[in-house]
Design goal:
One of its GO terms (biological process) is mitochondrial translation. With 283 residues, this protein is an all-alpha fold. It is built from nine helices and no strands. The chain has two domains: 118 residues, no CATH class; 116 residues, no CATH class. It is elongated and about 100 Å long.
């Protein structure tokens, strides 16, 4: 058996570069060597993909939104405006940081003033949303005391109105669903049906039927038998045409001779909601 003793010289000799190998000059890092995808999320922090906007592009000429103006906006408008303000502030904060690194640069003042006004708008949006949240909670507390009376009065007004196929009445129904029964305008995949939701489905479904059944000649379906029939009416539009379509579906449903018991109402309505969401996703 032979034993080899390695020395530093021998080890180093193995790493020597052959004289025939030509060394290439190093590639200096430049901005041209960096390729960024056009849809990269960080572009959201840049205005039209510019490093810093010119002062003329951010010259402050407007004002912040007033609380009175924001109170007239819908939930969707307020959330959309908040998102726009947030994106603009992200761009401004990055640009302000760049000017801050340059010391007392007077150019950056225009950016700061614009950022302050946008921040005022966002603060006022939060104020309006807080007002609405308090109003909703107060209405829900009052409803616990006088809820049945309120629903009865709403029903009488709806059934005796000259016409209910108007945007005004559609909005009233939508607000009633959300404020009293917690039924949102849009449902997401994680939504869970509860007894309050089911009560809203039954109230709105019966209300639509009582309003239009005689007009479309479908009083023969009364009384409605279970939550499945009421949900069918609830899902259709609050119009004579919508109720007529729901009644046709109820005719088909009754051919199966199925009646949903009260103990299964939440489970059944949850299934209806999930089926609806799946059909919308498929579209």
């Amino acid at each position: 058996m032979s034993r080899h003793f390695h020395t530093t010289a021998l080890v180093a000799a193995r790493k020597r570069i052959p004289p025939t190998v030509k060394l290439r000059p190093p590639i200096l890092p430049t901005i041209n060597n960096i390729v960024v995808k056009e849809d990269h999320p960080l572009w959201q922090f840049f205005h039209n993909k510019k490093f810093v906007r010119d002062q003329s592009e951010v010259a402050f000429t407007g004002r912040a939104w007033s609380v009175q103006e924001l109170r007239r906006k819908s939930w969707e408008d307020l959330h959309g405006l908040w998102h726009v303000c947030l994106k603009e502030r992200n761009k401004l904060e990055r640009e302000i940081y760049i000017f801050r690194q340059q010391g007392d640069n007077p150019v950056g003042e225009d950016y700061r003033r614009l950022d302050d006004e946008i921040h005022k708008s966002m603060w006022r949006i939060k104020q309006v949303l807080t007002e609405r949240d308090h109003a909703l909670k107060n209405a829900q507390k009052e409803f616990k005391v006088n809820g049945d009376q309120y629903l009865q009065e709403f029903r009488e007004k709806y059934l005796t109105a000259e016409t209910v196929e108007t945007d005004d009445w559609y909005d009233k129904l939508e607000r009633l669903q959300q404020a009293i029964f917690g039924i949102p305008e849009l449902l997401d995949a994680d939504f869970k049906v509860d007894l309050r939701f089911v009560e809203g489905v039954k109230y709105i479904g019966q209300l639509k039927f009582d309003r239009f059944a005689e007009q479309i000649g479908r009083t023969d379906l009364a009384p409605l038998r279970d939550v499945a029939e009421l949900y069918t009416l609830f899902e259709e539009s609050a119009s004579a045409e919508g109720v007529a379509e729901a009644c046709a579906k109820i005719d088909e449903y009754r051919e199966n001779n199925i009646v949903i018991p009260a103990s299964k109402e939440v489970q059944v309505v949850q299934g209806f909601v999930e089926d609806k969401l799946e059909s919308l996703e498929a579209e």
